[in-house]
Amino acid sequence: MRRWIRAGKVEMNRVDTGSRSTSVAGSFSETIRSKQDEAENMETIGRALEELREVVGEESASSAAEDLLPYLRDIFSPLGEKFFGKPAMPRVIVCPANAEEVQKVVKIANKYSIPITPVTFGTNMGGLAIPAIEGSMIVDLKRLNRIIGIDEESMTATIEPAVSFGRLDAEARKHGLRAVSKIGGYTGGFVGNFVSANMRPHNARGGWTDPVVTLEVILPTGELLRTGSQAAQGFEKLNPYARLAWGPDFVGLFRGSLGAYGIVTKMVVRLYPAGERNEFLMYEFNSLQDLLESINKTQRNDIGVSVIGINADDLYTIVMDYEDRSNPELVRRIKSSVLRENLWFLFIELEGIAEKVEVEKRIADRICLKENYAKSVQLPEEKMTRYLQDYVTHRGRAIMHQYNGALFAFWCCMPRCKITTFIEKVNSRFKPLGLKDVICPTEPAPLRWVIIPFDRGTTLLCGICVEYDPQDRAHRETLGKMVQPLISTMLSMGATIPLTMKPLTSMLMPSYANLMRGIKKLLDPNNILVPDKIC
């Protein structure tokens, strides 16, 4: 019996050894193939890099890790990795200087089958400009930074992707015009926001008309496309100022596409008349419902070139700079007086001829003060007022202090009747987390709410922002777990977002998702531009 057992053990050992040998051999073969593939990939990247440098110059193309690593993070992406996926290391970055160079870069990418992730300008958020596939090429458009011209008759500007809100507004005002209002910092970009991310202006007048007029786009195959009135070959410079011309509205095709359908190299953007008088109004409300009613009435009466509702927490982060927020005594004093919890604020910018501004001010006062129980607000320090004006108008640099770390931010559009319930539901999820202020840890983390009217208040953009410390793993993990529940809550309230990403595609009706995929396949047969991002 023992001999049988011993024989069995020997036989078993022989089988096991054979299995391990086969496994080791297979593993070794896979390792060899992997190294061969890696060597071939490196050789391909090397050849592509040589050709790219011939196009853009030695200093504007690189495969060095120190040049690539900055493109793997933005202020939100560490929180969304479980939902949107982890960043993938790119192999090369190239910075073309004009549309012709972008064309050549795209053709080289097709030649060597290297995926492209285009990056425009400003503070990228949500992982929208972060590679999703290993070995891709970053095409950074920061050198395309010209304001090509301002046409006073059509009230438009022709710009490249790296032109910021603040810079265009300053230039437009030299011509008696102004740029459309858009929430955010001085350095935010037009193309990234209004085309790739499909944002809209936040006021009655600008929101009634799409600011994007015509586009110049490099398609995924390297072909150049001009939309609208620019599509007439040989006559594109005579009148680039009409969006609806020669058939379908192709501008809409590229809005919200995150660059997956083409790389915008030029945009004609609408400008608006600058007024002789500029005035800022600020009202305080004890009730969110009263704030919403005031937004509704001011928008339907065409009041203001910029209208934004914010809560006390958001106003706190806007008007208190780092030094202020590092002073616990000042923080407690401000929060117990001017910025008490549960208060809401409406900020209205008026601009136009003096008589018109005066009439609008009287109407706004009547709507807010008499009909909706608000009171006028004066901030205790002049710098606080300047910070707030910079935030709303994007015309100043002072607002750059507000982003003290990374930012958890979600935005959606929904009917006015859903806003109050939505905010209550989200607050009930966030407040029990016990998050602390990243600057003043003795205080709770500000839950910043922003409400912006679109299209004369027919729909409202509602957003929540929470600052967090990207180095604090527990902080990251806690907020990261809120991504999926927040999206579910948004959808349950009938909310929409202006763009889509692959994780959200499954929530769309099949015919809609299939149409997006079909357009992608038609325009990008080699799946070069932003693969694995929107569908």
Describe this structure in words.
This protein is α+β, with helices and mostly antiparallel strands. Among the domains are: 147-273, Uridine Diphospho-n-acetylenolpyruvylglucosamine Reductase, domain 3; 277-492, 3-Layer(aba) Sandwich (Vanillyl-alcohol Oxidase, Chain A, domain 3), CATH 3.40.462. The protein contains 19 helices and 18 strands. It has helices at 2-56, 65-68, 81-84, 99-112, 165-173, 190-196, 204-208, 251-254, 288-300, 312-319, 322-325, 328-336, 354-370, 382-393, 416-430, 473-480, 483-492, 502-505, 510-523; strands at residues 61-62, 92-94, 116-119, 137-140, 147-151, 156-159, 177-178, 212-218, 224-226, 263-270, 272-273, 277-285, 306-311, 344-352, 375-376, 406-414, 448-454, 459-468. The strands form 4 sheets. The chain has a 7-stranded antiparallel sheet with strand order 15-12-14-13-17-18-16, sandwiched between helices. A 5-stranded antiparallel sheet has the order 5-6-10-8-9. The chain has a 4-stranded mixed sheet with strand order 1-2-4-3, with helices on one face. Helix 1 packs antiparallel against helix 4 (99-112) and helix 9 packs antiparallel against helix 13. The longest helix has 55 residues, at 2-56.
